[in-house]
Amino acid sequence: MSENSIFIQLIQLLGQHNAKYHVMEHSTAGKSEEVAKVRGTELGQGAKGLVCHVKGNGIRQHVLAILPADKQADLSKIANALGGTRASLASPKEVDELTQCVFGAIPPFSFHPSLKLIADPHLFTRFEELAFNAGTLERSIILNTEDYRKIANPTLVDFIRTVE
Questions:
Q1: What is the pTM of this model?
Q2: Do residues 70 and 32 lie in contact, with contact meaning Cβ atoms separated by under 8 Å?
Q3: Segment (H or E) for 80
Q4: What is the mean pLDDT of the segment spanning 104-110?
């Protein structure tokens, strides 16, 4: 599967659900701050995806954790919410196998049966539209937030790192 086939799957899925979205072609931008500038969106509109591996208590689960791009994840909260004892970021090989995407280009949808989709509820509280890379670093989708919630139907887990 290629980056382009992930993009095609996304467009087909959004079309099937009559989602309100648009596609944006842009120069490659690596960091969330850079891509937000290129898109002309707020940093917090970015839907950042982290592929994690949760283990412990008999749990072995890969997770695609979606959160606002201006926040950081607390992996222990992800592990606890799923019944595990620890969570770590997946290896580049695992990310490629589970998403068919390079780091930074993972859309907030899971197309792999072994990759559980979770999202922090904070993702849905601030912006009417979410922005994310669509399988490649040169293409983004700007999608209505409620359409994303309905179509992706992620499990909601509070896992944003809090500053104390």
A1: 0.95
A2: yes
A3: helix 75-81
A4: 93
